[in-house]
Amino acid sequence: MNFHTRKWVKPEDLNPNGTLFGGTLLRWIDEEAVIYAIVQLGNPNVVTKFISEINFVSSARKGDIIELGITATEFGRTSITLTCQVRNKITRKSILTIEKLVFVNLDGYGNPTPHGKTEITYART
Prior knowledge:
Low-confidence stretches: none
Oligomer: single chain
Number of helices: 1
C-alpha cells in the first residue's frame, strides 16, 4: 500500500479527549478515497456508495503526522472498491483500517455508468 497523503494533527482537529476527532479523520479519508477513485476511473463524477466497518486501532494526538494509504482492490462494472489504512508517519503505528470503500462511476445525469477499467493505473507526469 502506498501512503501519499499526509496530515498534521492540529488543535482544531481534536476531540474533548485531546485526540484526533474520528469525524475529521473520516472526512479526510472520504476525500482522499474519492480523489483516488476519480483518478483511477478518469471521471470526476464519482460518489461514495459504501464504507465497511471502520476499525479505530489507536489514537493520534496534536502534533502527530499521519499518513493515509489507499489501494484499489476490485473493479466492478460501474464501481471501484478500495481499502484504506491510516498510520502515524513517524512511529508507523496503525491508527485506523477500513477494509472496503466502494465508489460508483456516474454519467452526466447521475446514473451509474460502466467505466471499462480493470486494473490500477498511475498518472505519468
